[in-house]
Structure formats: structure tokens, C-alpha cells
Design a protein that fits this description.
The complex is a heterotetramer, with 2 copies of chain A and 2 copies of chain B. Chain A is an alpha/beta fold. Chain A is 28% helix and 18% strand. Chain B is an alpha/beta fold. The model of chain B has no long low-confidence stretch (mean pLDDT 95). Classes of the chains: A alpha/beta, B alpha/beta.
């Protein structure tokens, strides 16, 4: 990186030989039995060895919260930083070391309450890192206060009469902040989650994945309607690029646009499949529109809302560094000498 | 007419005008030229608040003082010998400082009824006798500037703007300076040929006016100072800090990373370092101070020479991040260019009141090394030393500068990079027995970069087990680690050279200072010593830890006096540590110490039995 | 507010007698000559007396920045707080005192850089206050660094090679954060600005107004294309609820929706006015879509993007306070006595 | 079998088990019942880190200690007389503290191979002789609980959960307590009738087991303590703080506003106050600590009794906001319930290491009053006093509590609200000569609420002109205002009562403490005095300002000792201010002081020369 190049060079681990086990640490996992975090950890550990990246090149950075204990359980490099600030720490890492695969793990409180500003800025800067937000709609670690994603009326420790703050929808917010990759999945939906994680890993730029996660101690069942076998085909819609938006047990229902571009649910048979909304990941407006499909009026979309390519912050930075190399005066002595005179 | 040339040894000039009048440019041009002329010098730019005040108002007055001499210069001077006042407001704000009998040069055009009113004069100062006692010279600087650039057909506003160069030319003549440097500077600075030409003409017109007009019967010569041979340049504090960090990067072979959020008076370091991408410097303008320090933490973890720069209110926001950096034991330099507080305070004014915040502004037992720069040129070495300690001890270091040091300038011997000792960096790569919180002889832990095969490990802000770095809630371990972290700071003292004492090595009074008061204390101590008093002066570079010999040094004096631009902060640390009845000499006016203030305080100590 | 009611009650100033002059302070205005802030100040001072609110019931709260000096020039109550935090200060005021008319004045750095988190949270909570963001796409007070709204490539003091951070669009971000009122106007567009300010004042909830403002010292001409008489009919589109979206000298151009809901510019005559996009303030998606009309491909929309009614934070708070009154034990002594026993 | 009843004066019991075992509930039930029985008592709940550790692991052990007596009780006891260990991990963590010869009650069912392994026992402690020296009682608590609730057909997990009530019942019998209180509590607490019934049955089964089984040959009686007649209740620190703030609101007639962001161990204050909307309390869970304090500033400006509550890392974030509040001169109480640091530290462990941060964690000269609570019940009065001073002096006050004070409980004489002096509030309404920074006798500025006709004015964080409050960059004004702000804090000392001295009013040693060490120091001093030493104890309530008589008091002793749960913070302030060679007795283990530690430290001082 500098002319002296004091930075060591390595013979890297062969990623092809890596297995899930290589990503498991010797630390006891300290989440409550039944916590949704376990499943997410398992899926991440499954996806890691498939990405062709040597283990030592992964860095997991987190803030504070139950979810933020995640790095301790990943046999990679990791920083368990302070509450809300992981995106900033990760930005510093990536700015220095574009060669690393940097993953930010955060919770709904960590990312959207105290850390809301860094969240939004890392997205708009499009720093090349993966940002996994474990949304359990509660503060788990501090034992059950409502969070910025808790629905209005949530009775939690700090809101005995019910919360009165209208929640943030992380996907809409991310799109509003010009994120280049925005997706959503569910802790227990192992296959879907793995697919989304892979797509995120492949994205060059900030890949934001909201993962609904059950906190079975302080907010048990928050996503039951979305995971329950009975209800889920009506409450969840899997979106896919280029496909018309359909859901229901037999995909008999669809989403179409009504007046003022308000989305509406239609019966596919009578309305006609060709008039349904076709999901377009690359259209910002489509992503925004789909993000506004919210319970109880609409099924909850999961999948990739938006994915476009825009040069990442670190990439642009490296380009500037490269361009600057053509400048003369690369020794500090030259700068020191500026405007000097000699006393004899 | 052939005019007389009088030789004098020392002169202090203050240029004062409206914010828009270009006084800072005038001042720094005069500074560079005077440096080239071989004088020793010191400067003090004093700006108004950041927002432009109404034209002609008192709040809008911008000043620049320079003292230059054929002798050694320690301060920009208490009371100027010459005051150049571009308008009535400038006169009103600055006249009280002018030496009795001093030269007063007024831009007569601006001394009109409207400007008197704006400056709050009910009567013209030209007529009320208040200027009696000074050598008054009135010149229609605006009018003559307009004349000089007439042919260029600039619009009036642009033409009037050139008047600071007229004033500069006049003063160049008055002090026998070469115009060469400024001529070149103008040629490079102004891209538009007409503007360039206009400024040049104004400069020369001013010079020739001095030469030919009957206003002045003589001009002055200040012989070069006797300074050690070598290469010199003028340097301001923020510039020197930036160069120091660049030097530290080169000496260590590390890449520089600066995470910063703009704030007066620290922003210039960001601006300066942003220019050196060619040296591999990465500057990141973060969304706030918290992101700034956190990004620097991430960079340090990744192998950068990492910095964050700010001023007091920003340092307040970095407290939690500093605690994290301390727990992670990463090398990091946190720069606080202090300004007058509390809260928003007076952003463009100087102060030394963040020392306690630097020492204690974090939760828990969270000691960090604190180093302070004493002068513009010293900033360079302070930056290098802060980096060296940060890297060697794997510890975040707080570097204190302030608005005065940051913006004032002095001639400075250009260092020879090849003579500066390299900074040794050891990245850990050995897998065998790797422990993230193992210790070397400095109690530093290994710097193991992500990307290193086999050294995967996790660090964080929760208390950690000795050696392994695993989370630990063990009672004895916590006490051990807290004491270890304190000892880590203390360790720095062991590698410090013996403390330098200016003046008497024992005697009646020891004056202990830190930071920007160096020049004033140095000069003040010399002054009273010349009168026969036995006084010593220690200027602390490291405030945490104190040098190991400080306690013994204090014992050699009857009294200890601690002048500070605050209500007494260092003095508290000294009293608590050494149980010595050190007396505080506080000043908290947004202004640096004057030599006379220090002299008076010393005398008071010497007299009070 | 409490049973003791130690709070003074007042005979309020008659708002009908107020004039613009009543809102001018004795402090010298310290912006640079030519700064766009002057015009905004003038429009605000013009609008205030028309709102039927006694002068003493106004509070102006600001952060730090050139724009944030605003309260000093308003002869009302005011707090010039710290950088980025005005929305939080204002939330405290409004939570205590729903009777006051609270206005937050902020800049693009103040609101979106250091204050981004409070900005987003005040919007989603829908606290009943007016938030005016003076966007000059630069840090004015600290003398010219680029801001989160500066376009990529901005050469400012801290970015000699040009900025590489993709900017935030405040309107999109506000919509992404579920704001209930979002509008945009221009410093020099006096009439339009006054109209927008009035609409904001009438809105119950957080009314966010982005005001493009020229900083003639550090970013002169940033909005020239939008204010220049020659160009503005092509570069600006005034949006109005229920009206088809047209612009151009003779309103000959229009906005319509293309594939993947991507907006496109059409020739009205050939395309047909009835097929143009009709602006619908109440449709979130429409607001979002219109916010994505950005230079250089589209004209810049000004006007009200979105306006819906949702109970404000303070209103819900007061409702809970009222509901709680029915509870017994309103004396602290009762609470102290809980679980007590007597020692004789 | 009729068993013997033995009368003892003092007992300390520790309940220990897995986080999920309900030890905190068991402890607080025992506490309440014991309070009702008329004993004096003190408790110490000691939880694991916030996240659940694996079942049966050492990290997951949760403990609750209570000392109760027929005599006065100052601390929860150093070494318990009785240890109830629900599993091997609980035994391993706690055994070292049990008094030699103490009672050890084990839940035998849990002492199986799997749990030994989880606790890191390689051999069964039941067999390796390590329990020799204690009175060991093994009972199959789990098994008997399952039996007791068998008929209710709960699932196994739910049934096992009742075992803490079995253990409680057993200990109730052992110490001759009434079950009445807990019976009522269970009836109210558990909504589900089956669960309710199960817990009841477990409780009773435990009691009857003690009574009938041959395990114990006797039980114990602890006579009520001789306490002043009156109404009493048990109270924990966070609860008392909350009630204190409610009381202050009632006494002042102001509406309470709390802006807070959750953080251990302060969150409970937010939870508690959120319940009192019926008293007009507004609680605002902010997006972060900065918004929390800023919202409180806005509320204070609007006429609220405004609070913000946090712990160390949160206080670090509030520094800039505190500076603003200081400049605005608004009444505000900032509560820091300290936890072990630095950085994230050990969130559930106690410490007193934020004192310096409270004193100095802001830019510039930014002094604020600092008050500390010394015990759970004292929190109530400390809250009221903090509010009174904040309102009377128009100043933000920092209130320090800590994890130990916050969570431990003691019997507490219920105050009579009608006997507490009201807090006088004067809202300014007079237009004539109104000046926002005019001063009254306390140097307080007028509180002029928005909405008041004719008093429109602007305030902010930039330095302000004396009286008018207008922005001012004037040098002399700045110095004046900085000194005035320092004096404003100092003013509080004038209204403080003479400092109370426990023990000897002069003599060999003065022990100065603050905060949660009160009980241990008090007990320790009594102990050594009983041995004939002349020792006094001053417990500082206000740390800034120091009481006016502190300097004089110190002079009456040969030595001064300052025990603190940090590496020596108050001691630095005392040494710096009074130049007295006060010695630090630091402990930084996340645990409160033990009486014996204090005694040893005192003795060491007395013996050393
Ligand atoms: C500066 C600071 N403030 C507050 C806290 C306390 N705290 C820790 S985690 C947390 C919120 C956790 O919620 P979330 O991010 O949703 O994570 P979860 O535990 O639900 O996974 C809070 C308030 C802290 N550690 N640091
Ligand atoms: C905590 C803190 N950090 C940084 C600053 C310095 N600062 C003051 S205003 C400002 C940005 C101003 O930009 P903007 O909000 O766009 O306002 P403008 O001056 O352009 O109106 C900055 C960085 C500060 N005052 N406080
Ligand atoms: S508290 Fe909730 S989120 Fe945290 S570990 Fe337990 S179940 Fe998971
Ligand atoms: S610097 Fe720019 S924004 Fe600030 S007052 Fe001057 S013109 Fe206006
Ligand atoms: Mg959560
Ligand atoms: Mg701006």
C-alpha cells in the first residue's frame, strides 16, 4: 500500500477446502434456547464456504445487542464494537482494505435507533459490505423495550400503555437512502435466507438484508403469521425479478396497481396475469412500491426488492488513489521543502 | 526625495480590517516575505466568528499580528508597534492594544459617517483627540487602489478588493521588504489574468506610494536574525501537524487514514491531508464525529496509521469511541484542536480548556496518553511522537493543539527526513501460540491484521480475559486489566528523555506550562531572569503520563506556577499527583497569553513572600 | 398540567394585529450579502403573522450552521442548540407543550450529516412541528466542505479530487422514513415558498420542507439552472395535487410511467394529457416516484410531494395522559405506601 | 418430631442458581417477607451478563444475597452463613464466599455428571472432600417440586420452574418466616391459574419439607430489630430514584419529563416512570442518548421538571448535550447509574468509575454539580435534592448511582410527603426589564417559558453576554462568564447543612466515601471503633461542590483514607483541592466493598507508622 510495503503478504487458505465447521468458534453460543439468531448463524456458516473467499479474509463487525454477539461465533476476524456504530467501523476497514469481505451484523435497535445515521450513510455511500439486520422488533439484550420497528401499540417495558411511535420500515428507509441492494428474508426460512445471503455476497456495494428474527423471550411470535404453515401463503409474497407478483395457496392472488399508483390485491384469474405488477429489481420505484406492501392489508414481501450496480465507495477511492499516483512529489521531504529558504 | 533608513531590532505589526478585506492574506504574505528576509518571527491571526458579520461592524473585524526581529522571537507581541486599520471598526477594536507612540495607518476613504455609525462611533475618532499620542498616517488606500487598477476596467467591487495588496505594498516599503515573493504568489494564485494584474498593480502602487509620497520621512530596516544555518520555511500549526502525520506514515511505512468531521479550527488538517492521495492517504469525511473515530478504529484494525481530528465539541462526541479504541488496544491518534468553550463557545477563539476532557471524558477507568504541541513548528514533531507511541504501545493517543497554535505561524527549520528515526512496526503473523492480548515489553498486544491466515480472532468493548482476549466477567481479571491499562499509559514515561528546563535549573520559581503558552512563558521567564530572578520553565509535552523526573524537578524550586488558558486544569493534576502547592495562573478570554501577563504573574509569585 | 397548576396563564397577544415587523429582532443579520438565507427569512417573517398564532407561542429551534443562526433573527422564542440535534430538542418542547408552534431550522449538513438520525426519527414519529431544511449542498459555516447533498464529483475543501459519496435526496429519505408531509421549494421563489410554508404550517404532524438555498460564497450557482429565467421552465416542474405533471415553456412536456414503472418524459400533444402521471399527494408511492425525478434526466419537482394525516406524536401522548387520568392513586404518597408495614 | 428453635441475631443467605432458576424472585420474596418480619436487612442481587449463558454454565450463575438481623444492618454481608446452590455451577462460583462452617443447601437432583461437566468440575465436589468444613444438606428440590405439582399436569419444563418456590419455602421454614406475603404475591402475579397453583404448592411443599424431614434438627429465629416506630417498606435504588423524582414533581408542582435511551442498569427508571402517566409523567424513549438529553433540554425550556437517565457509555454520549444545558442554564437532572467500564465493560456489574467523567466529560470549562446516592433508600432523597438544586439554581445536576445501589434493597421508612418542604418554582412573567441572563441571589437566571407574552428571547450554546444573553465574543465577558458559571456551582455549597460525621469527630483517621460504599464503610468504621480506634466517616453527598466545611473536618484527623470502587478518583479531587495526603483504597472488580476489606484497609492505615 505504500512504497515501503511493510504489509505482509500471505499464502491464503484455499477456499475450496473450507467447510461449515471451519466457521464455528470454540465459544459457547449464549443466545436463549429457541432464539431465531441460531438459525441465522447456521445459514451464514453454511453460505460462507460457498463464496470462494479464504476464511481469513472475512471480517464480521457488529454493534451491541443480542444479535451483535454474532462475531464471537464466527471463526473469522471480528469486532464487537459499540452500540450502533458498526457501519462506521466497517467503512474504515473497507476503505483501507478492499480485499476483505466485510459483514456487518446488527439489530433493529442497533441499526435503526442509535445507529440510524450510520446505517443510512453507509447505504448511500455504497461501501462494499454486507449488512445483515436481525429485526426482532424489540430490544432483546436490554430485556424488552420496544424498538423503532415495533408496531404502534406495542406494550413493552417502557410503554405500558402501548407505544405511540410509528415504526420505521427498514426496507423503505434503505431505498429512500439510495441503497443499491435491498432484500428481506426470515430466520427460519433456511433455504430462502441462504439464497438471499448469496445474492448479497455477490453484490458489489452495500448489500442490505433485513432478516425477521424471533425473540422468543421478549417478543415471541412476532412473525408467527409469516412462518405459520397455515397462514404463510397468504401473508408472505416471494418477489422475484421479472415475475408477476402472485401469492396465496395456489398463487391465486396477485398485486396490481390501482389509482394514484396505490397497490391493490386482485384475483389473478379474473384480473388477468398480464395486468399484474411484474417485479423489477432494477427499478427503484418498483422496489419502493413493493416495500409499501405491508401487513395487515398486504402480504409481506420477501426476496430482493432492489439490486442495481453503482460504483462502490471503496472502488472509487482506490481509483482516486491510483489516479493520484501520477502526481509528482511522493516524498514527504518534497512537501517539507515547500517555500523554504536557506540561511547560511 | 531620498528618505532615511532606520535600523530597528524588533517590530510588531497588526493588520486589521473587515472580514472581507483580506487581512489574513495580507498577514501571511508579509509573514512569508519576512521569513525569507531572515528575521525570526511569530504571528497571530485572530478571526471573527465563522459567519460574516455585517460590513463595517465591530463583530466583523479580522486581525493579523506579526512580530519580527533580528533577535529571537517567542510570541507575536503583546502590543503592536504599528496598526494598519482599514476601517473605523478595525480602529475601534484594536486601538487599545497599540503601543503608545505607535504608528497608526488608516485607510482614510473608509473613515466616513456611515462607517463611524457601523462601528458605533458617535464622533469621528479623527477629531475627538483619541488618536493623539500615536503617529497617525492617513492614506486614501481605497482611492489609490482604484486609480492603480483603473485601466483594467474591473467592476468597482472587484477593484476595491485589491486594496489589501496596496496596504501590503505600503508596509513592504516601510519595512524594506522585497516584493518578489508576493509577486510570484499572486501570479500563481489568481487564475483570471485581469484580477492577477490588478492585484499586482495595487501591490506595486502601495510600495511606490510609500517611496514617493511625503507621508513617511523614513523607512525601517530589520536585520536578519542570527539563526543557525539551514533551510527554513514558515509554517502554521495545522500545516505542521499534517506534515507530521505524513512524515510518520513515511517513517513507519504505514498508510495514513484520517476519519474526520469538519469543525473549526481543526478542519484544515482534513483539507490538507485530503491533498495527498498520491502518498496513499485516505481521508474520509464522515457523517459525524462518532463515525469519524469509528472509521479510524476500523482502519487501525486493518493496518492503517489511523487518525481522527476534531475540536472540543467533537471530542465530547468521541468519548464512547475512545473507550472502545482503548479496549481494542489499537494505535490511533485523536487530535483535538481546542477552541473556546463550553458548548459551542467561541469557535474561532483559542483556549486550553479541553485538558480535563482529554484526561477523563470517558466512562470507567479509561486512561489514555495525552500529548500537547507547544508551537506551530512543534506540531510536526508532536504528530510524529504521538504516532510513534501509538504504534509502539498499541494505544490510542490524544494530541492537543489549539486555535492559536493551529493558525499562527513561525519560521521553522525544515527537517531532514532521512535523519528522523524510523518507526518500527511489527505485524504479527506467527500462528503458534498466538494470543490477541499477549504482551510485549511495552505491554503492547500483537497487531494481527485481518487477512492473516490462522490468526482469526474477535475483539470488542466488553472486559476481556488477560492474554486470550475472550469475554470475562471475572472480578480479579477485571481489576488486573484495569491496572494493566493504567500501566500501559505509564510505560510511555519510561522512554521519554529527561525533561528540558529553560532558565534556571533550581531557584525561586518553576513555571510549568503546556501547549500554546510556550512562547509567552519562555519570553516572560527570560525577561524576569534578566532582572536577576532565579526562575525555571518546564513545558510539558506529555501530560499523561507525566515525565518520571517531574516530581524531583519541582522540589528544586520554592514555588510552582502554572499558567493556563483555562480556569486551572493541569495545575489540578499536578497538585493531586505530587501534593505540591502549585499555583494556577488562569486566563480564559479566547486569547493567548501576553508576555507581560506572564511577567506580572511571575513577579507576583516572587514578591508574595 | 399538574394538579397544583403552578404554570402561569396568559392573556395572549392578538394574532390579528401582528405584522411582519413584529417578527424582526434587533440583532444584526450576519449572513453574507447575497446569501439565500435572507430571502427565506423574509418569507418566513411574512408568513408568520398570517397563521393566527400569537407571537409568543412560536418557538424556533435550530442546530449549528449558517442557516441555524435563523432563530436569532426571529422575534419569537428560540433555541440555537447544537449541531444536528434540533429535532430532538424540538421533540422535548412539543411533548411538553402541544400548545406551541414549533419550527426547526436546519441545514443539509446539520439535518442529514450529523443529525440524520434525529431527522429520520422525528419524521417517523410525526411530532407536530415544521422542519425547514436549507439545502445549499455545502457546509457554509465551516467554510466549504461538501455535504451529504453535494453531487458526486464536488470539488470542495475536503475533496480536491471530487467527492465520491453518492448524495442523499432529502425528499426521498423523508418519504422512506414515513413522513406525513414532504415538500420542496426555492429560496428566491418567494411566492411559491410562502405557499408551501403555509401548507406546512397547516399540517398537523411533522411538516418537512426542503428549501434549495444559494450559498454565494462556497457554492454559488448550485441552483442557477432552477432559478434562471431562461432555463427554469425546462428544469423545474411544479407539482400539484390532482394535476397531470407538465412542464416546459408552454407546458408542452409531461411525465408518464414507462416500463418497470420508470418515469419518462413525453411530448404532451402526441402522448395525450390523459395518459400523463397525475400527482397524488396522498399516495405514498406517487410521492416516492416523483421524488425520483432528478436532474439531469428530469426536471426537478417543487411543491408538495406527499401530505397525509396521521395522529401526531404529541397528540397520541396527550391522549394517553388523558386516558391515564382515570387511574387511581394520583398522589405520590400512595405509591410510597406500597407494600408498607408498620413498626410500633 | 418437634424441632428446636435457636435464636440468632444476624444471618446472611445467598441464593444461587442458573439465570433461568428464578433466584432474583426468590431473593426479593425473602427480602419482602423479612422486612415485614421487622428485621433490618440489606441485599445484593448479582446477575450474569445480559445475555443468557448456556444452561448450567459458570457464566450463567445468578445470585442474590440478603443479610438480616435484629441489629442494624449496613451491608448485605461479606461471607454468607447459608448458601443455597441450585446446581454445580452455582456451587462452584459461590462456595469460596461461604463462611467456614456455614450451611450449604444443594439441589441434589442437579448434581449430576452433565452439570458437573458444564460447571467445569472434573470430579464431583460431593466426593472430592471440598465441601468438608460446611454443614451440607442435600435435598432433591427438583424431584420434590415435581411431586408437589404432579396433579396439575403441567409440562415438565413448567413444573421444574416452580422449584425456586420450593427452595424459598424451605428457607422460610428454616428462618421461621411467614409465608403469607409470598402467597399473596403469587396469587397476584401469576395470571394463569395452574401456574399460580403450582407455585403455591411448591412453596408450601418446601416449607413442610423443612418442618417434617429429618434433614434439619432445628430452625432459627431472628427477632425483629429495634427500629424506630413508623411505616416501613423494602425499596431498591432504581425504584427509590423513580419515586424521588415523582415526589419532586409533586413538591414543585412541575410536570415530569424523562428523555431516556435504555441501558443496563438504568433502564428500570424508565420502565418505572413510564407507569405514571396518570401523574402527568411523560417518558420519551429516544432514538439514542443524545436525543434523550436534548429532548430533556427542550422539555426543561418548556417548563418541565426534566430528566435524562443512563449509564456510563450513555453519559459519554451526552457530553455535548450537557455542555449545551449548562450554557442554556436550564434545570435538568442527568442520572448515571454507573456500571463497570471502560467501554462496554461489564454491564451488569457495579463500579464507581464515572466520577471523573461526570466532573469533566465536556469541552471547555464546564463545571456541573454532582450528587451521589449512598444507598437504595437514600436514592429517594438524593433525587429530590438534585431536583431542588436544579430548579433553585437553574442548573443541570448530575446524579450518580450505580448498579449495586440500583438493584439492592433495604427496609426503608416511608416518608410523609406532607412533611417534605415544597420546591419553590418561579416562572418569570414580568416584561419590564426582562433580561434572559439576569441573576437572582443564587446567580440563577429567570425561567421564562415560551408562550409568555413579551418575553420572547433566544438562547444558545455560543458564549453569551452577561445579562442580555446575546452572542458575545468579548474577551473580558468570556472570562467573567466562565468564572460566573464556576461560581454558580459553588453557590450550592452555601445551602448545604454541616457535614455529618459518623464515628469520631476527630482522631487518627477520617474515612471519606461516596456512593454505594456507605454501608461497608459505616460498618467497617463501627467495627474498628469498637476496637478502640478513633476513626471518623464522612460520606459525601455532593462531590461538586464539596461541602464548605470539608477542609476543616479533614484537619481534625491525622490521616484521610478514601475507599472507592475505581482506581482513585474522588481522592484526586480531594488532594488537588485541599493538598491533603489523602490515601486511596481502590477496588475495581465489579463488586461492592466488603466490610472486611474496609476494616483491613483502615487497620493498615492505623498501623502504618
Ligand atoms: C451507548 C449505549 N446505549 C445503550 C446501550 C444498551 N443497549 C445495548 S443493546 C441495546 C438494544 C438492543 O436491541 P437490538 O439492536 O434490536 O438488538 P437485539 O438485542 O434485539 O438483537 C441497547 C439499548 C449500550 N450498550 N450502549
Ligand atoms: C459537534 C460539532 N461538529 C462539527 C461542528 C462544525 N460545524 C458547524 S456547522 C457545520 C456544517 C454546516 O453545514 P450546514 O448544516 O449545511 O449549514 P450551512 O452552514 O450550510 O447553512 C459543521 C460541520 C459543530 N459546530 N459541532
Ligand atoms: S433475548 Fe431474545 S433476541 Fe436475545 S438471545 Fe434471547 S431470544 Fe434471542
Ligand atoms: S457562507 Fe454561504 S450559506 Fe453561509 S452566510 Fe455566507 S452565503 Fe450564506
Ligand atoms: Mg432487536
Ligand atoms: Mg449547508
Amino acid at each position: 500500500m505504500t512504497s515501503l510495503n511493510i504489509y505482509p503478504e500471505f499464502k491464503h487458505t484455499d477456499p475450496a477446502t473450507q467447510t461449515r465447521k471451519d466457521f464455528v468458534t470454540d465459544q459457547d453460543v449464549r443466545w436463549c434456547p429457541g432464539c431465531g439468531d441460531y438459525s441465522i448463524l447456521a445459514q451464514v456458516q453454511r453460505v460462507m464456504p460457498t463464496l470462494g473467499i479464504p476464511r481469513e479474509n472475512y471480517v464480521f463487525v457488529s454493534g451491541i445487542g443480542c444479535s451483535s454477539r454474532f462475531p464471537y461465533y464466527m471463526e473469522t476476524y471480528g469486532i464487537h464494537s459499540i452500540h450502533g456504530r458498526a457501519p462506521a467501523v466497517a467503512t474504515g476497514i473497507k476503505a483501507m482494505r478492499p480485499d476483505l469481505s466485510v459483514w456487518v451484523i446488527t439489530g433493529d435497535g442497533d441499526a435503526l435507533s442509535i445507529g440510524g445515521n450510520h446505517f443510512m450513510h453507509v447505504l448511500r455511500r455504497n461501501v462494499d459490505l454486507k449488512l445483515l439486520l436481525f429485526n426482532n422488533q424489540i430490544y432483546g439484550l436490554t430485556k424488552g423495550q420496544y424498538s423503532p420497528t415495533s408496531p404502534v401499540g406495542t406494550k413493552a417495558k417502557s410503554t405500558p400503555m402501548g407505544s405511540i411511535d410509528y415504526p420505521i420500515d427498514p426496507v423503505s428507509l434503505a431505498l429512500g437512502a439510495n441503497a443499491t441492494f435491498v432484500a428481506r428474508s426470515l430466520d427460519v426460512h433456511a433455504g430462502h435466507l441462504q439464497r438471499v445471503l448469496k445474492r448479497a455476497a455477490d453484490h458489489k456495494g452495500t448489500a442490505f438484508v433485513e432478516i425477521y428474527q424471533n425473540c422468543n423471550i421478549f417478543n415471541d411470535g412476532a412473525f408467527d403469521a409469516l412462518t405459520d404453515k397455515e397462514t404463510k401463503s397468504d401473508t408472505v409474497i416471494e418477489i422475484e425479478h421479472g415475475k408477476p407478483m402472485r401469492f396465496g395457496k395456489n398463487l391465486e392472488k396477485g398485486i396490481a396497481l390501482g389509482e394514484g399508483m396505490r397497490p391493490k390485491i386482485v384475483d389473478v384469474a379474473s384480473y388477468g396475469e398480464d395486468k399484474l405488477l411484474v417485479h423489477d429489481e432494477q427499478s427503484e420505484v418498483c422496489g419502493l412500491l413493493v416495500s409499501r406492501l405491508q401487513a395487515p392489508h398486504f402480504p409481506t414481501p420477501i426476496g430482493v426488492f432492489h439490486a442495481v450496480s453503482r460504483p462502490s465507495y471503496d472502488q472509487l477511492l482506490v481509483e482516486q488513489l491510483d489516479r493520484a499516483k501520477t502526481q509528482k512529489r511522493t516524498r514527504v521531504q518534497d512537501l517539507l521543502n515547500d517555500g523554504q529558504w536557506t540561511v547560511k | 526625495m531620498h528618505k532615511a533608513v532606520e535600523t530597528v531590532s524588533t517590530v510588531a505589526i497588526r493588520f486589521a480590517g473587515d472580514s472581507g478585506d483580506g487581512m489574513q492574506v495580507t498577514g501571511s504574505q508579509f509573514t512569508d516575505t519576512t521569513g525569507l528576509a531572515g528575521n525570526d518571527l511569530a504571528t497571530f491571526p485572530d478571526f471573527p466568528a465563522e459567519i460574516r458579520a455585517p460590513a463595517g461592524s465591530l463583530a466583523g473585524v479580522s486581525g493579523f499580528q506579526i512580530k519580527f526581529s533580528s533577535e529571537a522571537v517567542f510570541t507575536p507581541g503583546d502590543a503592536p508597534d504599528v496598526l494598519v486599520a482599514m476601517n473605523p471598526a478595525a480602529l475601534k477594536v484594536n486601538l487599545k492594544d497599540l503601543k503608545p507612540g505607535g504608528l497608526l495607518i488608516l485607510n482614510s476613504e473608509a473613515f466616513n459617517a456611515k462607517n463611524f455609525e457601523r462601528a458605533g462611533y458617535t464622533k469621528s475618532p479623527l477629531e475627538d483627540g483619541s488618536l493623539k499620542g500615536f503617529k497617525l498616517f492617513q492614506a486614501d488606500i481605497t482611492g489609490m487602489t482604484l486609480k492603480a487598477v483603473e485601466e483594467l476596467k474591473l467592476n468597482n467591487r472587484a477593484a476595491v478588493r485589491c486594496k489589501n495588496f496596496f496596504a501590503l505594498g505600503l508596509v513592504y516599503w516601510l519595512y524594506n521588504r522585497e516584493m518578489h515573493y508576493t509577486v510570484t504568489w499572486i501570479a500563481e494564485k489568481f487564475k483570471d489574468p485581469t484580477t492577477r494584474e490588478a492585484n499586482l498593480r495595487a501591490l506595486k502602487a502601495g510600495y511606490h506610494f510609500g517611496e514617493t509620497a511625503e507621508l513617511f520621512d523614513r523607512n525601517y530596516e530589520i536585520k536578519p536574525a542570527k539563526i543557525e544555518p539551514g533551510n527554513y520555511r514558515n509554517i502554521a500549526g495545522n500545516e505542521a501537524l499534517s506534515l507530521g502525520f505524513l512524515a510518520a506514515a513515511e517513517l513507519s511505512g504505514l498508510s495514513l487514514f484520517l476519519g474526520s468531521y469538519p469543525i473549526t479550527p481543526a478542519s484544515d488538517i482534513l483539507h490538507e491531508l485530503a491533498r495527498y492521495k498520491n502518498l496513499g492517504v485516505r481521508t474520509f469525511q464522515a457523517e459525524d464525529e462518532i463515525a469519524a473515530i469509528c472509521s479510524a478504529i476500523g482502519a487501525a484494525y486493518s493496518g492503517a496509521l489511523a487518525l481522527t481530528t476534531t475540536s472540543g465539541p467533537g471530542l465530547a462526541l468521541k468519548g464512547e469511541g475512545m473507550g472502545l479504541a482503548l479496549m481494542l488496544e489499537l494505535p490511533l491518534v485523536i487530535v483535538d484542536v481546542q477552541r473556546a468553550g463550553p458548548s459551542t463557545g467561541m469557535p474561532t477563539k483559542t483556549e486550553q480548556a479541553d485538558l480535563m476532557q482529554a484526561m477523563y471524558g470517558r466512562n470507567g477507568e479509561a486512561p489514555l496518553p495525552v500529548i500537547a504541541a507547544k508551537s506551530p513548528g512543534d506540531c510536526f514533531y508532536t504528530a510524529i511522537e504521538a504516532c510513534r507511541m501509538a504504534i509502539t504501545h498499541m494505544i490510542p493517543v490524544i494530541l492537543l493543539s489549539d486555535g492559536f497554535v493551529a493558525n499562527s505561524a513561525e519560521p521553522w527549520r525544515v527537517p531532514d527526513m532521512s535523519k528522523l528515526p524510523p518507526i518500527k512496526v511489527r505485524f504479527h503473523t506467527e500462528q503458534k501460540d498466538f494470543a490477541p492480548y499477549a504482551r510485549d515489553e511495552h505491554l503492547a498486544r500483537p497487531w494481527a491484521l485481518p487477512g492473516t491466515p490462522g490468526l482469526e480472532h474477535r475483539i470488542g468493548g466488553i472486559e476481556k480475559q488477560h492474554l486470550t482476549g475472550n469475554i470475562s466477567y471475572d472480578a480479579a481479571n477485571h481489576e488486573f486489566m484495569c491496572k494493566l491499562r493504567a500501566e500501559r499509559v505509564q510505560k510511555i514515561a519510561d522512554s521519554l528523555p529527561p525533561t528540558e528546563i529553560n532558565g534556571d535549573a533550581s531557584g525561586e520559581l518553576l513555571v510549568i506550562g503546556w501547549g500554546d503558552s510556550y512562547g509567552a512563558i519562555r519570553a516572560g521567564v527570560e525577561n524576569v531572569r534578566a532582572g536577576g530572578a532565579k526562575v525555571g520553565h518546564v513545558h510539558l509535552r506529555w501530560i499523561n503520563p507525566f515525565p518520571n523526573d517531574l516530581g524531583d524537578i519541582m522540589k528544586r524550586y520554592k514555588r510552582v506556577l502554572v499558567p493556563e488558558l483555562n480556569l486551572g486544569q493541569l495545575v489540578k493534576l499536578i497538585r493531586a499527583r505530587y501534593l505540591v502547592d502549585a499555583r494556577s495562573f488562569p486566563k480564559i478570554q479566547g486569547q493567548p497569553f501576553k508576555e507581560q501577563e506572564i511577567i506580572a504573574a511571575i513577579k507576583q509569585q516572587l514578591e508574595s513572600n
